[in-house]
Design brief:
Largest sheet: 6 strands, antiparallel, barrel
Mean pLDDT: 82
Low-confidence stretches: 1-37, 264-284
Shape: globular
Number of strands: 16
Strand order of the largest sheet: 1-2-3-6-5-4
Order of helices and strands: HHEEEHEEHEEEEHEEEEHEEE
Structural class: alpha+beta
């Protein structure tokens, strides 16, 4: 019997080809109608640190990883920001406020071919900053939570509705799941954390949090990609055997937060009043 993700492939492809309507609100009075995972506190942390990124006709998600004075740095996927014709983005924070953002291309070169990018915006408001976890301590079966802003949602179980005009409160989504695979060798572009959570187009760049609400990865690839086994090439050039591929395609995939260890800097954690200095334990 075909699974839910397989049934949605034609709808997702049609939406991608059809484009996304322009325009977005700065706030919305209607709360999201999504079932929250068991980790209610983790979902609240995710809400505070996750931002929505708009550009031209596209949209994606990101997570605040640094604050220095009134300057905030957002970590996202490179493929989220690479589609902009100009280096100009609108970052919408948890309160619905819109901020002008720019892609830090020069700083982001440290990521090499990894599908990550840094975007910066300025604000006098105080926003939460994600606490970095130690992804190297994750094990298969551990609880994780994926957050972001889907570009579309199913309405009445069958109709697709675009969320660009919904605002951050209504469009925000958190899904619960477990770590499903941690291959020793990363896939092309740095993907190495497979998890059972459902993610949708638009959630790319959003955070993957562990059971303590700490950032361990960045969403980037959803289940059952149209590219098939070509989406699961290892960095060394190999591909998984058929049995492993079938397991891999049934998972969503994230880039471990360890790549941010090369950019250690002061930050404030969510709810903390004093800056800390951080890096990561595990290098890549």
């Amino acid at each position: 019997m075909p699974n839910f993700a397989t049934k949605l492939r034609p709808l997702i492809l049609a939406l991608l080809l059809g484009g996304i309507a322009a325009g977005f609100p700065l706030e919305t009075p209607t709360p999201a109608v999504f079932s929250q995972p068991d980790g209610g506190q983790v979902a609240e942390i995710a809400r505070r640190v996750t931002v929505r990124i708009f550009y031209d006709l596209g949209a994606g998600s990101g997570v605040i990883v640094k604050r220095e004075g009134g300057t905030y740095t957002v970590l996202t996927n490179r493929h989220v920001v690479a589609g902009s014709q100009e280096n100009g983005y609108t970052i919408v924070t948890e309160d619905g406020a819109a901020h002008a953002g720019k892609w830090l291309r020069d700083v982001g070169r440290v990521f090499g071919e990894v599908d990550l990018a840094l975007v910066e915006f300025k604000s006098g408001q105080s926003y939460g900053v994600a606490v970095l976890g130690e992804w190297g301590k994750l094990s298969v079966g551990d609880a994780v939570y994926a957050a972001g802003f889907p570009n579309w949602q199913l309405k009445n179980g069958s109709e697709i509705e675009k969320t660009r005009e919904w605002g951050v409160v209504r469009a925000f989504r958190v899904t619960g799941g477990k770590v499903g695979m941690l291959p020793a060798e990363p896939l092309v572009e740095g993907y190495q954390l497979g998890y059972t959570n459902d993610i949708a187009q638009g959630m790319s760049g959003g955070p993957v949090l562990d059971g303590e609400g700490k950032l361990v990865g960045i969403n980037g690839r959803s289940k059952y990609p149209l590219a098939g086994i070509d989406a699961f090439k290892f960095a060394g050039g190999g591909v998984p055997v058929d049995e492993v591929f079938l397991q891999m395609e049934a998972l969503s995939w994230a880039i471990p937060i360890s790549y941010l260890g090369n950019l250690a800097h002061p930050r404030q954690s969510v709810g903390a009043g004093s800056p800390e200095f951080f890096g990561t334990k595990r290098g890549m």
